[in-house]
């Protein structure tokens, strides 16, 4: 992990402002941490983790305000992981951000570990909620965003959910509630990877036109390539800065297993099978891909 | 449960009780909106208290709070999953949410949100629900006959079933003072008063003997305690002594007090509750006695394990055995 750029940056709540490490490198390192955790357990939602790594790099190294060593700091932006099975990705991001020690990678999913396979607030510093029972994150975010407004806090609530999760009716209760209460301090992020437990999301329930749907529900809406770091950064900036009332959403189309081509092309699957000897191979491919793209 | 034959057909035609029906008998003393008024009083000292509902403020007496503290009241619309999730979010940000809806919707529709967003996180959310058991004539859609069975299985959730308006008013500050999630069954509107006649005072987690009696021990909760007390007074005239042990807190259960009373004097032990005989206080007491080796003659008064009929509440309470008359007559058949 990398230290803060400066004490000033840490105090401001943007610990990596001005740090001399690109978001692309952060994303690469998040992927690498995730692959190492996958290897520890021999399994994990690694395709989702690789797919969402760019979004998490932008979140934790550009957009979010937090203090790595003070996870309950009142002024922090709250990041809610509604999709609990993406915990492997969030742990990787929090390790990279210095919130969790890198040494805990070895404990991932093990007995007594602080890093269970599905994210739980009571287990892990920096994990704001217990996700996993899908459809909870938006509703909890509505309450937190209202609670922050009650306290006159300018902190924001980010909540990450997925296209499969949009099947849950409770998501839409929360979407309507956030619009009703004009929650301009709430930023939703939808990971659209077109994959859920029984197959492609688009084949399971009517999902599109997603952009128009959120707009019709009263949300400021953007849809970007979630593996295009510049586009994601611009979208997060706009979501924070746009002067409109109401909640904001960044719909991120992502590619499962992004960054490891031989896994990207594997049969698309919610729970990607990776053989025991493939983890190191995947890390090697990831390393090679990063060093050819951006040598340093 | 046997039907109790009425001595004479009622003169006035009874009508189906809607949501606004009162459970007070004609002429019975009542307290108006005891929950709403107690919450308003408490909120003056505790600025972190907020109120949330899902389109049922008027029918859960939360409208009293909403009127007194409009800036602390959140109308979430008819969306119980959002209601519970948002309450969890509020609690995470330091508010103390009192959340109201009907018991059927909290237990059946919003269960996962209470379980995972609130209870698993040990969050300080107070869920207060109207129409517990058989307190609506609307039929099964509004009759929460199995809410206690559902919620008893949820780890870490405290469950309270007050008997009357006095106890509701006393329970509000007590559950607010308790750290952690609470589910409270609510009698709303003009709520009968009876416990004040017995010098009763609510204590969270304590079962309390409300009246003594040498022949029968009735262990009861909620509305059934009011009915059991009325039945006990009737039976007294027939020289049948009935102790009523009121168990307002169903979880955690005050087994020490219950077992001590059940062990005393070879009395018939009857558990009475406004709830299905499956999974409620009756079964909780039965298993507690069995584990402790306490084995008195034991009977259950409660709603049958079936979807109940619609109709007028007095008729239904008689039919399903939880009116005072029905309780008294059942006890007599067991002596």
Name a few traits of the molecule.
A: 296 residues, alpha/beta, Rossmann fold, five-stranded parallel beta sheet, globular, B: 335 residues, 2 domains, seven-stranded mixed beta sheet, five-stranded mixed beta sheet, 12 helices, 36% helix, disordered N terminus
Write the layout of secondary structure elements.
The complex is a heterodimer of chains A (296) and B (335).
Chain A: H1 7-12, H2 23-41, H3 46-63, E1 78-81, H4 87-96, H5 137-150, E2 157-162, H6 169-180, E3 186-192, H7 210-216, E4 220-225, H8 229-241, E5 248-253, H9 261-264, H10 278-293
Parallel strand pairs in A: 1-2, 2-3, 3-5, 4-5
Chain B: E1 30-32, H1 34-45, E2 49-53, H2 63-68, E3 73-75, H3 80-92, E4 96-102, H4 103-109, H5 111-119, E5 126-130, H6 147-152, E6 158-160, H7 165-177, E7 182-186, E8 190-192, E9 207-211, E10 216-220, H8 223-237, E11 242-247, E12 249-251, H9 255-262, E13 268-276, H10 281-292, E14 298-303, H11 313-319, H12 324-334
Helix pairs in contact in B: 1-7, 3-5, 8-12, 9-10
Overall description:
The complex is a heterodimer of chains A (296) and B (335). By secondary structure, chain A is α/β, with parallel strands linked by helices. Chain A has a single domain (20-293), classed as Thiamin diphosphate (ThDP)-binding fold, Pyr/PP domains (Rossmann fold). Chain A has ten helices and five strands; from the N terminus they run αααβααβαβαβαβαα. Chain A has helices at residues 7-12, 23-41, 46-63, 87-96, 137-150, 169-180, 210-216, 229-241, 261-264, 278-293; strands at 78-81, 157-162, 186-192, 220-225, 248-253. In chain A, strands 1-2-3-5-4 form a five-stranded parallel β-sheet, sandwiched between helices. The longest helix of chain A is centred in the first third of the chain and has 19 residues, at 23-41. In chain B, helix 3 runs parallel beside helix 5 (111-119) and helix 8 (223-237) packs across helix 12 (324-334). Chain B has helices at residues 34-45, 63-68, 80-92, 103-109, 111-119, 147-152, 165-177, 223-237, 255-262, 281-292, 313-319, 324-334; strands at residues 30-32, 49-53, 73-75, 96-102, 126-130, 158-160, 182-186, 190-192, 207-211, 216-220, 242-247, 249-251, 268-276, 298-303. In chain B, strands 3-2-4-5-7-6-12 form a seven-stranded mixed β-sheet, with helices on both faces. Chain B has a five-stranded mixed β-sheet with strand order 9-11-10-13-14, with helices on both faces. By secondary structure, chain B is α/β, with parallel strands linked by helices. Chain B folds into two domains: 30-192, Rossmann fold; 205-334, Rossmann fold (3-Layer(aba) Sandwich). Chain B is built from twelve helices and 14 strands. Chains A and B meet through helix 5 and helix 6 of A and helix 3 and helix 5 of B.
């Amino acid at each position: 992990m990398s230290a803060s750029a400066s004490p000033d940056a840490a105090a401001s709540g943007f610990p990596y402002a001005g740090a001399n490490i690109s978001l692309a490198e952060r994303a690469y390192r998040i992927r690498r941490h995730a692959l190492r955790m996958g290897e520890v357990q021999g399994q994990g939602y690694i395709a989702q983790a690789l797919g969402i790594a760019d979004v998490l790099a932008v979140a934790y190294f550009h957009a979010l305000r937090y203090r790595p060593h003070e996870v309950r700091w009142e002024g922090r932006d709250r990041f809610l992981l509604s999709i609990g099975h993406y915990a492997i990705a969030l742990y990787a991001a929090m390790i990279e951000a210095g919130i969790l020690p890198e040494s805990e990678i070895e404990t991932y999913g093990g007995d007594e570990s602080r890093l269970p396979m599905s994210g739980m607030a009571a287990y892990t510093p920096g994990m704001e909620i217990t996700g996993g029972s899908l459809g909870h994150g938006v509703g909890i975010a509505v309450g937190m965003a209202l609670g922050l407004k009650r306290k006159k806090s300018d902190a924001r609530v980010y909540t990450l959910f997925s296209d499969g999760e949009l099947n849950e009716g409770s998501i839409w209760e929360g979407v309507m509630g956030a619009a009703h209460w004009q929650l301009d301090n709430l930023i939703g992020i939808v990971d659209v990877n077109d994959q859920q437990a029984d197959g492609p999301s688009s084949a399971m329930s009517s999902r599109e036109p997603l952009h128009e749907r959120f707009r019709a529900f009263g949300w400021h809406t953007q849809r970007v390539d979630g593996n295009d770091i510049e586009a994601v950064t611009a979208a997060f900036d706009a979501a924070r800065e746009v002067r409109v009332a109401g909640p904001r959403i960044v719909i991120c189309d992502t590619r499962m297993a992004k960054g490891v081509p031989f896994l990207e092309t594997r049969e698309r699957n919610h729970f990607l099978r990776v053989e025991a000897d493939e983890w190191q191979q995947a890390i090697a491919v990831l390393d090679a891909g990063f060093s050819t793209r951006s040598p340093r | 449960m046997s039907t109790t034959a009425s001595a004479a057909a009622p003169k006035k035609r009874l009508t189906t009780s809607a949501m606004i029906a009162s459970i007070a008998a004609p002429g019975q003393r009542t307290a108006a909106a005891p929950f709403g008024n107690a919450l308003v009083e408490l909120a003056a000292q505790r600025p972190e208290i907020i109120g949330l509902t899902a389109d049922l403020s008027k029918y859960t007496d939360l409208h009293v709070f909403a009127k007194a503290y409009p800036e602390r009241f959140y109308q979430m619309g008819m969306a119980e999953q959002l209601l519970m999730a948002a309450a969890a979010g509020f609690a995470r940000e330091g508010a103390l949410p009192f959340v109201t809806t009907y018991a059927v919707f909290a237990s059946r529709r919003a269960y996962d949100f209470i379980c995972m967003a609130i209870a698993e996180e040990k969050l300080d959310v107070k869920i207060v629900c109207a129409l517990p058991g058989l307190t609506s004539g609307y039929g099964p859609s509004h009759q929460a006959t199995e809410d206690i069975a559902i919620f008893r299985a949820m780890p870490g959730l405290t469950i309270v079933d007050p008997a009357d308006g006095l106890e509701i008013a006393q329970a509000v500050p007590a559950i607010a003072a308790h750290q952690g999630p609470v589910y409270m069954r609510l009698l709303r509107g003009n709520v009968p008063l009876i416990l004040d006649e017995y010098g009763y005072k609510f204590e969270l987690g304590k079962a309390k003997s409300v009246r003594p009696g040498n022949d029968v021990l009735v262990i009861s909760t909620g509305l059934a305690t009011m009915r059991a007390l009325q039945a006990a007074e009737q039976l007294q005239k027939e020289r049948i002594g009935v102790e009523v042990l009121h168990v307002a807190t169903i979880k955690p259960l005050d087994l020490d007090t219950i077992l001590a009373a059940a062990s005393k004097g070879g009395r018939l032990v009857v558990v009475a509750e406004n709830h299905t005989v499956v999974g409620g206080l009756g079964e909780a007491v039965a298993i507690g006695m069995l584990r402790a080796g306490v084995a008195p003659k034991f009977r259950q008064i409660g709603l049958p394990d079936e979807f109940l009929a619609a109709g007028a509440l007095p008729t239904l309470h008689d039919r399903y055995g939880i009116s005072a008359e029905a309780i008294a007559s059942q006890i007599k058949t067991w002596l």
